[in-house]
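Write out the 3D structure for:
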Amino acid sequence: MNKLFKLACCTILIIFCSLNSYAQDKEKTLVLFTNATVFDGVNEKLMTNTDVLVEDNLIKQIGKNIKAPENAEVIDIAGKTLIPGLTDCHVHIMWNDNIEYLIYSSQDGYLGAMAAKNAENMLMRGFTTVRDLGGPAFGLKKAIDDGAIPGPRILPSGSFISQTAGHGDFDTRMKYQSNHFTGQTDLAYTRVGPLLQMVNLKLSKLRAKF
């Protein structure tokens, strides 16, 4: 029993040391922007000839004549202006074509590919965070968070919340992608279908009498 306990402790110690060694060996991503004009989002006056050190996509230091750390990529952006990342609080990042086409006709692959392109374009326009207010953006968010594709940080709301006949009430009788945008099928449609069938049946019986 004691030998088994010692063996388990040794195994745990070896695993811990290996993980610790891996964490130390993993190099940080360092980028130093030099000679920039900087707008910090607070002061109206721009900072000129300023250096900005970025570590793992986070700003670590802003100042003049920052010494470049070892293994840092140095980018001279003289004549250009750096600003804080912009935030758009109302986007539909999955809408990249006519919404009727996207919902009733488009293929999953097309929807996803165009959304990925839209996300990249959004980032290139300076938006580093967006709040998505309706659409199946969770998969796109994961791909961006995992580093698979470029794009802004997405705060997804999920499916639309809409009143009947509102701008987010899509005809689920013709649904293809509509359930991705609107969530579960509106019960109104499941009620209307049988009701119309019953009305048509009664009309047919009435016509047969005359």
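The chain is about 40% helix and 20% strand.
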